[in-house]
Amino acid sequence: MNQPTIPAASPIIGGEERAAVDRVMRSGMIAQGPEVAAFEREFADELVGGRTCVAVNSGTSGLHLGLLAAGIGAGDEVLVPSFTFAATGNSVALTGATPVFVDIDPDTFCMDPDAAAAAITDRTAAIMPVHLYGHPADMTRLAEVASQHNVQLVEDAAQAHGAQWQGAPVGSFGTFAMFSLYPTKNMTSGEGGMVSCATDEVARLVKLLRNQGMERRYENELVGFNARMTDIHAAIGRVQLTKLPAWTARRQEIAARFDANLRGVVVPPVAEGAVHVYHQYTIRVPQDRDGFAKALLEEHGVGTGVYYPIPNHELPSLRTEADLPVTAKAAQEVLSLPVHPALSDEDVERVIEAVNAVAGAGA
Asked: 150, 172, 181, 314: most buried, per Cβ within 10 A?
């Protein structure tokens, strides 16, 4: 195999982003300032129907501060999927609350509403689905469960910029929602997160918590953190936000080609009424997933990713005795193919040919 490897992910940073950073550096205002405020407004208008947004220094900070602003703390339980990155469960634990892990839907990889309903207890304070891989969770049924049990619904939208459920954007359903702006996400600010808030009070609390508990300098109202986003990062994010629609369309175009042409693997279905933005294009390989990935790389130069091989409830840091059979099966079978917009048409064809060849060889 003499061709260059096709990477599983490839952040796109161009001249516009570099120019934006230079502009901020020349201004002398590089901490949280006008760029952050503009990024918050633009993100709100473009992605969450105008809900107030608060920029922070990471997605994990966004989840943590959002939960605190929603009143989550010691003695509470928050329902979360185990099949996700550890930041989801970590953010709950950092508030002093207990993450309670529930199973997922086998098609969408998102939280199963029936599993969530079955896990409700007197201590449950919130349900936090993850819009995994860019596919929205079933917010209709999850909202019904939350309403029936009088608990909050909050959203981990780290991977789902621009995804929709039944015509409404993710990030517009819960008390708050968090979007990650890490380099490998569908858009980036270099590092950072954005919190979409349902009310002015939640937004105010997140703003206080990100800035040492201060709205006005030296008038600390509560114990807070330093979780601010810099103007440098916001400037990158503002440029990336303008490119997101075209990048999303390219991801969806690539995914459609995979859907139509991949053989011998299980391609990801899309629920009726869902708009999938394909942060990951995740297939299932029922037999020897790791051998399949090794063959793709070594024989065809196609990089892949496994998200996530160890469910949260099996991690030493978050271990529980939960029995989650759908999660366990997914962790053994999932394999994410390159779907990023840096792929050329020739790259896409190489991925298709490679997957079909390895599947046909019975790897």
From this structure: 181
Q: Which of 221, 238, 255 is the last residue of a domain?
A: 238
Amino acid at 249: A
Q: Which residue has the tokens 């080609």?
A: 257
What is the Cα–Cα distance from 100 to 322, expressed in whole angstroms? 9
The answer for residues whose C-beta is within 8 angstroms of residue 57's C-beta and 6 or more apart is 191, 192, 193, 210, 226, 227, 228, 229, 230, 233
Residue 51 falls inside a structural domain: yes
The domain that holds 253 is classified in CATH as 3.90.1150.10
| The overall pTM is greater than 0.85 | yes
Neighbours of 271 (CB within 10 A): 17
Does residue 182 contact residue 188 with C-beta atoms inside 8 Å?
A: yes
What is the count of structural domains for the chain?
A: 2
Do the beta carbons of residue 88 and residue 81 sit within 8 Å? yes
Residue 115: CATH number of its domain: 3.40.640.10
